[in-house]
Amino acid sequence: MIGRLNHVAIAVSDMEAATAIYRDTLGAEISDKVAQPDHGVSTVFINLPNTKIELLEPLGDASPIAKFLEKNPSGGIHHICYEVDDILAARDKLVAQGGRVLGDGNPKIGAHGKPVLFLHPKDFLGTLTELEQA
Ligand SMILES: CC[C@@H](C(=O)O)C(=O)SCCNC(=O)CCNC(=O)[C@H](O)C(C)(C)COP(=O)(O)OP(=O)(O)OC[C@H]1O[C@@H](n2cnc3c(N)ncnc32)[C@H](O)[C@@H]1OP(=O)(O)O
Ligand SMILES: [Co+2]
């Protein structure tokens, strides 16, 4: 079902400090910061030869990453994102196997303009898992 690793997301409380680490210390090229109001986060992407790193900073009062950052104030790996050829077929198959899709169960448009959905971390080895339509 799953295909390419699209991105690994890291939650951060200070985006400027985080981008400085990737840009200045690790020598990576970073994207502009983009507000994603439908997702309660702001994002910066780091394009690597084989995948991407997504830096996430809370946006608004009800950010889904707020509690994670309370527990991990210096930041941490928040989720991984796999591409799938057919996100609705993947969702239906996972739900039929007892997997929990977060939110209302329907895909939302993600940071790359494609449908995404999230799977509960307790069903996937303690790892919050995002699926993105390829
Ligand atoms: C920019 C758009 C998009 C893209 O295109 O890339 C994005 O990436 S948006 C990214 C942000 N959006 C989301 O994360 C949406 C999905 N997330 C959620 O619905 C919630 O964050 C959550 C996963 C349901 C967690 O909710 P929360 O209220 O923060 O915590 P809970 O108390 O309900 O947590 C229950 C349980 O799960 C553990 N947990 C929580 N978050 C994670 C995590 N990121 N990785 C691993 N485990 C996680 C939490 O510790 C609790 O465990 P126990 O303490 O053992 O009960
Ligand atoms: Co993501």
From TrEMBL:
Entries under Pfam families matching the protein: Glyoxalase_4
GO molecular function ontology, one term from the record: metal ion binding
UniProt keyword Cell membrane, yes or no: no
Segments forming domain VOC: 4-134
EC assignment: 5.1.99.1
Catalytic activity as recorded in UniProt: (R)-methylmalonyl-CoA = (S)-methylmalonyl-CoA
Keyword Cell wall biogenesis/degradation part of the UniProt annotation: no
Enzyme class: isomerase
GO biological process, one term: L-methylmalonyl-CoA metabolic process
Keywords: Cobalt, Isomerase, Metal-binding
Residue intervals passing through the bilayer: none
NCBIfam families with a match to the protein in the record: metmalonyl_epim
Family: Belongs to the methylmalonyl-CoA epimerase family.
Name of the molecule in the record: methylmalonyl-CoA epimerase
Species whose genome carries this gene: Roseibium limicola
